Amino acid sequence: MDFDWTEEDAAYRARIRDFLARTLPANWDEIARHGPGSPEQTEFSLTFCPKLADEGLLVPHWPADWGGADRPPWEHFILGEEMWRAGEPRGAQYMNVNWIGPVLMRYGSDAQKAQYIPPMAEGRAIWCQGFSEPNAGSDLASLRTRAIRDGADYVINGQKIWTSYAGLASTCFLLAQTGGADGGRAGIAIFLVPMDTPGIEVRAIPSLIGHGDIHEVFFTDVRVPATARLGAEGEGWTIISYALANERVGIPRYEMGAATLDTMVAELQARGQFSDSIVRSRAAQAAAACEAARLQVYRVVDGRSRGQAPGTESNLARVAVVGAERAVADFGMDFLPDAFSGSGHDALLSHHERAIVTGIAAGATEIQLNLVARQHLNLPKGA
Amino acid sequence: MRFDLNVDQQTFATVLGQMLQGAAFAPVEGWGRYDLGTALEAQFDAGGFFDAAAEPDLGPVAAALMVHDVAGVPVCFELAASALIRPFLGRDVPRPLAVRVDGQPGALRYLPQARGIVEIGETVRYADLPDGAAQPVDSLYAYPMGELTDPEALDWQTLDADPAKLRALWQVATAAELTGVLRAGLDAVLAHVRDRRQFGQPLGAFQGVQHRLANAAVEIEGARLMMLRAAQRQAPGDAALALGRAQEITNAITYDLHQFMGAMGLTLEHPLHRWTYRAKLLKAEMGGMGAAYLSYATDRWGAP
Fold first, then answer.
1. Which residues span the domain enclosing B261?
2. In angstroms, rounded to a whole number, what is the distance separating the alpha carbons of residues A89 and A46?
3. Which terminus of chain B, N or C, has less C-beta within 10 A?
């Protein structure tokens, strides 16, 4: 066992931090204030990501054929940590880098790859993921948006909800039913749908988690060519499973939490309010939750870097990450209540908005607990 | 960053696992709350297991894993201090070994058996324990507990050892034993809720049970990994945080384990108390979670 970084990994991290220090503007906290999906951060990402690409830091883990450098999983992971630590200047484009690009490489047609992968590798593509529906949240396989074959086309009707980044996205990674009304998993197919296709209506949902983040997306007789389908009819669930396995641990939120905790402590120290034992021990408690999550996530990445098949460790890691973000967010509101009103604390405000969605986004914690119980602890399924 | 054991550590863990299979639970006559594993202890002695931490290819990580794994069997013998303190004292001392930190008053575990005692404070001191130096006391805990007859009468010798490092090692040893007993208690309860049926299905099929046990598994695993990182680094911050975390999660988990084991878990016929009533002592070791977290806060953010 070795819990320390190799010299090469440490140098890579230092290189990213140096790049960020040189590249992020003085008013970056203000730009990042309303989250990765906000108009400000989306616009910023379209100039920032091309610079990252020039530096070889946008898709270094991708194959060289697609603009990457075949770098190992740990480097990809360190890159993600540093980006989220800095408030995610890639905006919504982190999704392209992490899983949309790799999924297209594996399942896309030559035409789809040629059309969609280069803009991602250049840092100028915004995607949204059309997964959840009003009646298909945790139970995603019960989705009802229909794609009906009509000659050389499909006609799509239905509604998506909680769609992140839909307001400014150019393309939607859409899940729809091509089977009967109750097609279930076997009937799900994926479509790559340009968001300017007639019949698509996007409504922003004002929320607690940042401007421009979540949306409703309505599809009314949206006609797309069959060439927009990713993989075969009925292959959608397999592709989604691959995408989730590729992602495995999601956003390195414990790193964002740990960095925010340091910001909170620095603020308390500046006010002379970090001598109280209760405050100090609560800060350490939050740090402990971050480290408990960090090590469980690292173990998943370690397995991946050594070519092991995904196991239940990623479910444990996801639960632990929720605990980390809760501990940090609660610490902030318990001891710095005034930072969440007025101005001057952009980094804390934006962290709070990002943290509160941790147990819900990308799969509810309770579903992860079900998976831990049944698959990791081998507990029986209920009646 | 690697989470796999080296070849020597793997072999060590395999042999250890085989040895531990022989340690079965048996109730102890006369309302006994612990069962001294003297046969297993003799095997450890013969096999040189107490010196694992000093072997370059095994080191404190293997020793900490050993403490963790041995904590999971329903018998006990003094191991934590022998495995993670004794090899780092700079001189040979006998075992079993008792450890006292910062002059903590009251009973200490394994003191009735101990042949020497280490005290970690501003400095590190050691004293042999001749016959009569300690007396056994009755206790709720699943350890043999004892008190020193007259601490000042002992022949204390100051050792040339780094108190900060030994403090960190004792935090690691305690966290290793604590995560080990929690894991063993969890395993016992998992076996029970898979088998025990009520309302026509196993207890373990109820989501109200599943989620609490799943959470316990997540928390124990996180604390175990923090303990292993601290074992590798032996740095004060890592060690304090690992112990604080293990102590923090103990109350909720021991409560849930007893809750799901029901009345059977309150009997001395069932081994659950052998783990939970060690956890209840270990969670208070070195001042408990609060002291550990304050120590970490100073290490990370500076003194108040």
1. 163-301
2. 10
3. C
